[in-house]
Amino acid sequence: MANSITSHQMMVDIVAVLSLLVLIQKGDAYDFKVGGSGEWSLTASYNQWAEKNRFQVGDTLLFKYDDDKDSVLEVSKEDYDNCNTENPIAKHNDGHTVIKFDRSGPHYFISGVSDHCKNNEKLVVVVIADRSHKSPPSPSPSGSESPTPPSDVKPPSSSPNGASSVVMSLLCFMGALACFLS
Q1: How open is the CA angle 89-59-86, to the nearest 5 degrees?
Q2: How far is CA 132 from the centre of its chain?
Q3: What is the pTM of this model?
């Protein structure tokens, strides 16, 4: 009987540790899709979509595009304003580009095809460092050029990654409680 109590307690301890690990996982960063869909093309203007979101350090931004016909360039403000594709900070041409924001401030993206950029295939993302005011991703773009994030955006009850953490933690807690009560 002493061995079953010890193994029972060990099971409870393991479930408790797993619950704790799930709780401390990174659950407050968002995985944004450019424009809401991820599609990087001439069919949309992205800055109004970006204005409706709060991008923060640690978030990611996905660009999906035909790598034979387009690319994504990270550029300076001057190169963004002039659609200059000659001296990018970084060039991405894999068709499925994920940018992780590692610093606050403005981030400028343009199409690697100068004519596409001149036809508004470009984006300014303003990244903030404060994790306490977060908005969920908005679904679609629609035409504004101002990169200033809105001040009236309400934070969500939990982030997409945080929601899975809560569910997993609840399941682990219920499992630990069931082991404890049996």
Answers
A1: 15
A2: 15
A3: 0.60
> Angle 137-160-16 (CA atoms, 0-180°, nearest 5)?
160
| pLDDT tens, position by position, 13-67 | 665 555 544 444 445 788 999 999 999 998 787 999 999 999 999 999 999 999 9
Question: Looking at residue 42, what is its pLDDT?
Answer: 85
Residue keyed to tokens 């899709």: 33
Per-residue model confidence (pLDDT) at position 88: 98
* Tokens describing residue 85: 């594709």
Quote the pLDDT of residue 29: 82
Amino acid at residue number 24: I
Burial 149-164 (b: 16+ CB within 10 A, else e): beeebeeeeebeebee
Amino acid at 51: E
Closest CA to 130 of 155, 161, 157: 155
Torsions phi, psi for 160 (to 5 deg): -55, -45
Amino acid at 71: S
Dihedral pair phi/psi, residue 72, rounded to 5°: -120, 130
Residues 6+ apart with CB under 8 A from 85: 73, 75, 79, 110, 111, 112, 113, 114, 117
Q: 127: part of which helix (H) or strand (E)?
A: strand 122-128
Q: How many CB atoms lie within 10 A of CB 42?
A: 14
